[in-house]
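Handout, section B. The chain below has 365 residues.
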Amino acid sequence: MQFHEHPHEHPHHHEHEHEHVLDRRSALRLGGLGLGGILLAACAPSKSAISSTSTELAASSTTAADVTSTIAATTTSQAEQATTTSTIAALNTLPGFDEFASTVKVFASGDYWQVESNGLPAHNMMVGITSWQQQVPLAMTYKGSNAWQLPKKPALADNPVSAKTSLFRGAIALAVNGVPIFNALNNRGEDAFLVGELDKWGGHCGRADDYHYHVAPLHLATIVGSAKPIAYALDGFAIYGSTEPDGSTMKKLDEYNGHVGTDGVYHYHGTTTYPYINGGMRGVIRGVVGDQVDPQPSTKPLRPAGTPLQGASITNFSSPKTGQYALEYSQAGKTGLVEYTVSDTAVAFTFTSPTGAVTTEKYSR
């Protein structure tokens, strides 16, 4: 897993409860018993207040034809791209990402879209995790030579790569809000959602304090609408929400959670059951190195990786001031607290254990 820096600039308190997500986890745990054998064998956000979102899809006036024409507009030559304002605008509106243009930058570079972000969402994080390794969200530096790369002209692979047996490290997709999406199975081959590792939005922090999802961020469909993707797999194919782009009922999916649409182009879907997101790389990728799609952005942890805190449940995460954060958790009926302040040069932590013991740590950036 990988990470970066940059302060999280959300000066607000987070108190959103998504009970419907908890209900879904309970239902999946019950229904997932039959899938267990399969799953385990496979082993600067905006400064506006953070708001939670629901999983209901919002209507959109954009049609599938609009999406197709936008993508087609990006294939013009570099000379043409430099001549008209409308063409330049099209280069910055890869469907879905345009809804997050204030924090996610998209531009064309040769045969690829480059996507820059700090990896932090505008919604709250961490609340609801019941299997926690004491990591907290820190902003990453996904930019420049370390930006995400998505093929502009994705193509189906003769030999797809399954996420059931591979790709247990790194990201397999990128949400349109700039947050990476990892394999639904953690590096032990367990369904990260069913074992309680994920928050109410389907994410958590990895060993480098990098926030990422492990399931489809279906809540983004309320922002982008059904006609636009909620994410893109690293093979370049779009990932839509729970309906087809035209708003109709989702058609039958293959083992990779995708199919060919009415426009003749393959796309994936997010679902509430495994594999939740793209079940691997149905499209052509440049390679798999170290059990992850290559290339992709890399980051460096600024502190040693945390260890599991048995019996802890995260109950609140807030940012009382810009650059200041507080994560509360419950353990054995008592409350613990992790407070940290992010500056341009360092991250300072204050840990208050459920017993009241206070320790501090400081790391250079």
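Note. Residues 1-91 have pLDDT under 50 and may be disordered. Compare this with the example in section A.
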